Amino acid sequence: xxxxxxxxxxxxxxxxxxxQRVLEKYITxxxxxxxxxxxxxxxxxxxxxxxxxxxLIFLDINMPKMSGMDFLRTLKDTPYVIITTAYSExxxxxxxxxxxxxxxxxxxxERFFQAVNKVSARIQSxxxxxxxxxxxxxxxxxxxxIFVREEKVNYRVNISDILLLESLGDYVKVHTQNKIYxxxxxxxxxxxxxxxxxxxxxxxxxxxxxxxxxxxxGNFVKISQKHIPIGVTYRKEFLEALQKFRML
Length: 248
Hints:
Layout: E1 8-13, H1 17-28, E2 33-39, H2 42-51, E3 56-59, H3 68-74, E4 80-85, H4 91-96, E5 101-104, H5 109-125, E6 145-150, E7 153-158, E8 162-168, E9 171-176, E10 180-184, H6 187-193, E11 199-203, E12 206-209, E13 215-217, E14 220-223, E15 226-229, H7 232-244
Parallel strand pairs: 1-2, 1-3, 3-4, 4-5
Antiparallel strand pairs: 6-7, 8-9, 8-12, 9-10, 11-12, 13-14, 14-15
């Protein structure tokens, strides 16, 4: 599985043609996804995985002869996996098998996009394999990025350009060096996408990058002339992270 790539090669494994069509439509709307093939069972998929490099699998659970979960257990070098299923009772088992996300059919494009962004963030930052303390593995590389969707347009945002993330109910304002994006997504979903080595939640409504902190003044973090409050329930974890990062 490739860790650095401009496109994420993906594979659909689903025995239902309507479900395949929905996934294919969603995939074509995201510029960094490249659909390599559609398989109607795990045996077709197994043969393809031995001959092609696949970064991401969209996997249904309930399929003939062998379920998606049983198929996952047979894989040694597992790509990133997003489960797509009508059965919610397998969610815990899916996470135990280290799937990236679990989409309950029918799911919206926004929910699909959130799941894919998790994969993109993990591929770019290798956060699935790092044990570094906050700040030890911060790499403001130009190719570290996420895509955010605003008014039906997907924008590429470099991780190093993010100043802070601000929750507004079901929306998040992504403050960058040059623009503010209003994204239909929760702060919790962004928190799952961003590396904990580089970002920390300081308040129920704010996530900030360590590298952009200019100063800490009382119960506020200052970033680019903005004062972000430090919430009472987040203060202890934040201060401990700063000590490890040697900012205190």
